[in-house]
Amino acid sequence: MDHFQYRDGQLMAEDIPVATIAADVGTPVYLYSRSTLERHAKSFAEGVAQAGDVKCCFAVKANPNLAVLGLMARMGYGADVVSAGELERAIAAGMKPEDIVFSGVGKTEEEMRVGLERGIGQFNLESEIEGVELAAVAEKTGKRAVATLRVNPDVDAGTHAKISTGKAENKFGVPYDLSADIYGRLAALPGLEMRGIALHIGSQLLSLDPLEAAFKRIGDLIAKLRADGHTISRVDLGGGLGVRYKEGEVPPTPEEYGAMVARVTKDWGVTLMFEPGRVICANAGIMATTVIRVKPGIAHPFVIVDAAMNDLARPALYDAWHDFAAVTPNDKRMVANIVGPVCESSDTFAMARDIDAVEAGDLAVFRSAGAYGATMASTYNSRPMVPEVMVDGDQWAIVADRIPAATIAAAERVPDFLAHPAKGGAD
Ligand code: LLP
């Protein structure tokens, strides 16, 4: 359930017609529903609370907009960040540094220093060498870095290969079989205060089975580490819970997820941490777009919309499905290919899709676009940066401006030496 529903034949964002916002801000534009974000944040937190002592850190990468992060902060969420940029955003949005976890496979020494200076709550180490480096940075600044070791449990998450992270061949974490030895060596470093384990096996998981298998392996590891004399007080179970993008998909509910976690972890005696992203914001956002024109095709017409792969990259990158719906449907249907104006064939949102019949000038939306949407946008083809709007009942506000192509170009320079003939002797 979300708050983008039809009322009197037109699509609303909470109590505002989508058409009102589109007329004012233009398209393409992302719209987020405050009520949906808050409801999802609440139901996830309540779901995992079944497992006892828990802490939720919103995965900033899913939607780093400051307005969204501010809402999460007020819902009691900390943040899971993967760069100094995300870290500063989380703090700017009101997240407490001690509630911030620094994940990410390539933290630089500078990012480690920023994290330590800001006093963040935890670093999730991706390798032994990273731990050694973090310990050195911490010692230099006279601090001890609180850390967990990210373990790769070698479990197939059963999701798209590009968003799967928990198989042995993936770049994330340390191999399960080596993890106890690595943990032991890291725990001996004076610059580190090792507290436990982290894992994250992938995103958009529609089954709890791989998560359960991975968590059970972690349970065995905790027992081994404790037998080795380590105090294990935290386990970060990552994110990954899937959402419904397409009719027929039935993702596990946060309640079911929480019940599984509670069952598997009941004897662990640790603080459990979670890094949900998609499950909170995917269905709390849509992207509105205008049909530029409909062009005949061989099998099906091409509905050319003013949004493109630079605005919503997921279909091009992962063949992802986003429902497409007219803002004022006329009860007619058509089968069409939905494409953007960018000059490559991967700028395709859907092929041979049965959709509301639309024509030039019509407004439509891509649903389930609140996670990994605007944040993955670019200005490819010198298109503007897509704006974002937050809706709250009958109020709405722009929470990220459209950045015109000219503003992007204004940051570019043509060096003086290009005014002279090329050294190679081009004539
Ligand atoms: N924690 C870690 C360490 C992660 O790498 C991720 C996502 C999350 C938490 C949040 O996962 P979630 O709850 O959102 O599934 N751009 C892709 C998704 C990439 C996910 C990367 N890591 C997409 O559009 O599907």
Report on this model:
By secondary structure, this protein is an alpha/beta fold. It folds into two domains: 156 residues, Lyase, Ornithine Decarboxylase, Chain A, domain 1, CATH 2.40.37.10; 171 residues, Alanine racemase (TIM Barrel, Alpha-Beta Barrel), CATH 3.20.20. It is 29% helix and 24% strand. The strands form three sheets. Strands 4, 14, 15, 16, 17, 18, 19, 20 and 21 form a nine-stranded mixed β-sheet that branches. The protein is globular. The N and C termini lie far apart (65 Å). Bound molecules: ligand LLP. The site of ligand LLP has 22 residues, from helix 10 and helix 11. Ligand LLP binds next to helix 10 and helix 11.
Overview in brief:
It contains 12 helices and 21 strands.
Number of helical stretches of at least 4 residues: 12
Structural class, please? alpha/beta
Overall morphology = globular
Q: Quick one: CATH superfamily of the largest domain?
A: Alanine racemase
Any idea how many domains?
2
How much strand content do the residues show? 15-25%
Q: Helix proportion of residues, in percent?
A: 25-40%
- The CATH architecture of the largest domain is Alpha-Beta Barrel
What ligand species are in this complex?
ligand LLP
- Could you tell me the mean pLDDT? 96
| Uncertain residue ranges | none
Radius of gyration from CA coordinates: 23 Å
Q: From the 3D structure, determine the CATH topology of the largest domain.
A: TIM Barrel
Ends distance: 65 Å
CATH class of the largest domain: Alpha Beta
Number of beta strands: 21
